[in-house]
Amino acid sequence: MAHDIAALATELADMAAADHRSSIRANSDDPAEQLAWRRLTARHGDRLSEIMDEYGWPTAELVGEEAAHAAWLIAQHADRQLDVQRRALQLMRQAVSEGAAGPRELAFLRDRTLVNEGREQVYGTQIAGVNDGSPVPWPCEEPERMDELRAEVGIEPFDEYVAKFAMA
To answer: Which residues contact 167 (CB under 8 A, 6 or more apart)?
Structure first.
């Protein structure tokens, strides 16, 4: 079992590394590059689904910090696999309630899933686009409470967050 877990941790980390290398393709003007990105994230989403079937949510206690973060990233980018995102969200929510996962990553996954469902997000973590050089979030349920809700889960205020994305 320990060998299986070590192999799983390595596999998750490798998947996240491939995701990082390929993420530039997500918004490419080249349809072939966009398709390559979609294929990669779909393959990863399918594999994460298998992992969740076997192990539940891959927590840091089970696979280590890096691999647990990798699992979250894979779920986050499974945009065309809402079943995978919803299941990851459910399992991660349970892990957070048990103290086995962090509320910050859960908040990002919750927002991403809500936006992919065509609903308003809670924490303002998902950016719809850029208007006059300023990042604009997808609509939020309670925009006046966004920074308060973000603080509760350890996310910096929206203005600080989007300053990272602002055009130079």
So the answer is: 130, 133
